Amino acid sequence: MMSEGYKKTDDICDDVCGQARSAFSMSRVKCFFRGFDLKAIILLFVVLPVCIFSMYLHGQKISYFLRPLWESPPKPFHEIPHYYDENVSMENLCKLHSWKIRESPRRVYDAILFSNEIDILTIRWNELYPYVTQFVLLESNSTFTGIPKKLHFAKNRDKFKFIEPRLTYGMIGGRFKKGENPFIEEAYQRVALDQLLKIAGIEDDDLLIMSDVDEIPSAHTINLLRWCDDIPPILHLQLRNYLYSFEFYTDNKSWRASVHRYETGKTRYAHYRQSDYLLSDAGWHCSFCFRLINEFIFKMKAYSHYDRVRFSHYLDPKRIQDVICKGADLFDMLPEEYTFKDIIGKMGPIPHSHSAVHLPAYILNNADKYKFLLPGNCIRSEEESG
Ligand SMILES: *[C@@H]1O[C@H](CO)[C@@H](O)[C@H](O)[C@H]1NC(C)=O
Ligand SMILES: *[C@@H]1O[C@H](CO)[C@@H](O)[C@H](O)[C@H]1NC(C)=O
Ligand SMILES: *[C@@H]1O[C@H](CO)[C@@H](O)[C@H](O)[C@H]1NC(C)=O
Q: Percentage of the chain surpassing pLDDT 90?
């Protein structure tokens, strides 16, 4: 972009002096001095500010677009084929995966760090309810970015009576360190979650689900893993990525969620890559799937990548509503991909989907309450009514 700027001033000089640019001669030097005022003025007051301003606006996009040059894709996973139909016996399902069936299922722990995603939490716990022994939830009065937050779960706890007998709840005070990398507060909270799991009574070979609230394994996936022997000790789950609602399917590249066969002293709660095994088509990852515009604003501020909110107008409710309905990007960023083909293929808004097949059953059974997650319902209220 800079060089383009300079070229333009050269062209202007050529126009002014009417000379070929290749010939470097005295007359060109003269031209330089004759044109000096004009050229300096243009450079100082037009080209330079335009360059700096557009770097400021698009610097992030440029670096994202050039990602294939500075970052190579992560090592591919060993993808395990996944077999399922509701009318196939568990014995047969285990066999299809070359696993043996157990005499009794493993116990299952679902552990999460909670921020404010009450709706998604309701859907998650209803989906997993039949197969989870203990729901372990930790919340803090600080966001990862060190902003004080309400204890949203504690405030809404009466909405989750159905899991109360299986709930281990923990609260941890934030450290409120100004200007610290948000990943440090996040790591601190994950360590506390390890403690809470011990309090909840987790034992060796129990299954432990490590995932964000919005990464929801499908119930039948967890049922398979608790019934079959010989599953890998650590298995990542490939989830279908959605944005804002199930109307916007982006890809099936979500892999951060994982299921562990717990090993005392060894298993640590984490949200990064911990093994090479990935079970295909194992659930849903619905990012920014909020009911209220206010929740979008909160999440954008509380997010570990707060630096993405580069301009305050990003938090304007009208703009957010517009972005949601279009399936565009809240932070006006380019897709995080590793090849030019993928980046270009994914630029622009996400296409609308009209399918609500194979979604968490609880959404369809309570469609009135969760309409905002279904295709064709992108309009959000700003605040809770009534
Ligand atoms: C399920 O399997 C049973 C027995 O194998 C069969 O009778 C029944 O028709 C099947 N149901 C569906 C919906 O395929
Ligand atoms: C956060 O919680 C801790 C522990 O309960 C408490 O000491 C602290 O005052 C709280 N801070 C805020 C800002 O709510
Ligand atoms: C994941 O997406 C790729 C590319 O769209 C597709 O080829 C593949 O079949 C998908 N896998 C699953 C399990 O849906």
A: 65
**What is the distance in A from the centroid of ligand 2 to the CA of 115?**
15
Residue 270 sits in the same domain as residue 327: no
Residues facing residue 261 across a β-bridge: 207
Does a structural domain hold residue 340?
A: yes
Ligand 2 centre and the CA of 174: distance in Å?
7
Task: Give the residue whose CA is nearest to atom 1 of ligand 2.
Answer: 173
Judgement on whether residues 181 and 207 belong to the same structural domain of the protein: yes
Q: How many domains does the chain have?
A: 3
Name residues contacting ligand 3 (CB within 6 A): 252, 280-281
d(CA 380, CA 375): 13
pTM over 0.90: no
Check whether residue 130 and residue 266 sit in a common domain: yes
Say which CATH number the domain at 230 has. Answer: 3.90.550
Strands (E), 147-292: 167-172, 207-210, 215-217, 234-237, 239-243, 249-254, 258-261, 277-279, 283-287
Maximum alpha-carbon separation in the chain: 93
Does residue 122 fall inside a structural domain? yes
> Looking at this protein, which amino acid is placed at residue 256?
R
Range of the domain at 105: 78-287
* CB 154 less than 6 A from any atom of ligand 2: no
Choose the weakest-confidence range: 83-87, 96-100, 178-182: 178-182
pLDDT, tens digit (0-9, with 9 covering 90-100), for 324-365: 999 998 887 777 777 777 777 777 889 999 999 999 999 999
